[in-house]
Amino acid sequence: MDGILNINKPPGKTSFDVVARVKRHTGERRVGHAGTLDPAATGVLPICLGRAGRVIEFLQEATKTYRAQIKLGVATDTYDESGQVIQHGDPSGIDRKHLVEALTPFGGLIYQTPPMYSAVKHQGKRLYQLARAGIKINRKGRPVEIHQLKLIDWQPPLATIEVVCGKGTYIRALAHDLGQALGCGAHLTNLIRSRYGIFDLSEAISIEQLEDACQHGYWQHFVHSPDRVLSHWAAVIIDDDSEQRIRNGCSLTLNNSPPDARTGNETPADRDVYCSRDRCRAYTRDGCFLGVLRFDLENRKWQPTKVFL
């Protein structure tokens, strides 16, 4: 089975716990996830089966939507409830207006320092491994993009925010940095990922639902085709000769070369007609997803980068 499951990760389980349970109940050997959620977090966790794992790199480019609850007045070393308290502050003077003003600078393209308790690597070691050994590393800020950030609710000292962001964003770090900006400290108390690219929480299935579907033999009905996450790219139908070239990894010429590779004067709307970032989906004559093609500017041909048939 090649496809993607939209799983609603339960609290208290790691993303790898979910992968293990999917393996056990579906019988599939090649299973992976696209985008780790912390054990305490819940929500959308795309699980890729078989050759669908080859689209993870493209799925990770998608935006994600989170609803986060942040407690002001206490900061922890993990930036969430699981850590040790490292700061106490008084948030009593903070109102909704202060919160909105403090959140504003975190919108757009920002530099964010990843938490010490994170999977980011330093000299081959995960930061959380170093943190557990009592070693603290000076981390460099990394560019992340916050597309939308708004205050949903304010029940002192708890603030609930909604975040739409790009890859690499740590919501725990956002909570911590907000506390520092307000001068009272803060940490994340609850996190729900409500959307990941095309996958929405309202359509996600629980592990229990998947297990029941596996027992009754209809779990495949929940599997999304790998090309669905690439639906914002242009699609091309390949003839038999071109299909064989793609299967052999050979480049080929198509009629839909990217506009910026031809004149550079086309509008963004023109580019949407062709492909995103010089990539497109290729299908056989009978509608089967064949693979991903990337336009090579040097030889002005399309090069297969992922082949699924």
The mean pLDDT is 90
Count of folded domains = 3
What is the strand tally?
Answer: 18
- SS-based structural class? alpha+beta
Low-pLDDT residue intervals, each spanning 5 or more residues: 261-275
Radius of gyration using CA atoms only:
22 Å
CATH class of the largest domain: Alpha Beta
Distance between the termini: 13 Å
Which CATH architecture of the largest domain is right?
A: 2-Layer Sandwich
Beta-strand residue percentage: 25-35%
Q: Write down the secondary-structure element order.
A: EHEEHEEEHEEEHEEHEEHEEHHEEE
Percentage of residues in helical conformation: 10-25%
Report what the structure shows.
Strand 5 and strand 6 (85-88) form a beta hairpin. The protein is built from eight helices and 18 strands. It is 21% helix and 34% strand. The strands form four sheets. Strands 1, 2, 3, 4, 7, 10, 11, 12, 13 and 14 form a ten-stranded mixed sheet that branches. Strands 15-16-17-18 form a four-stranded mixed sheet. The chain folds into three domains: 3-62 and 198-226, Pseudouridine synthase, CATH 3.30.2350; 64-196, 2-Layer Sandwich (Pseudouridine synthase), CATH 3.30.2350.10; 232-307, Roll (Archaeosine Trna-guanine Transglycosylase, Chain: A, domain 4), CATH 2.30.130.10. The model is unreliable at 261-275 (pLDDT under 50). The chain is of the alpha+beta class and 309 residues long.
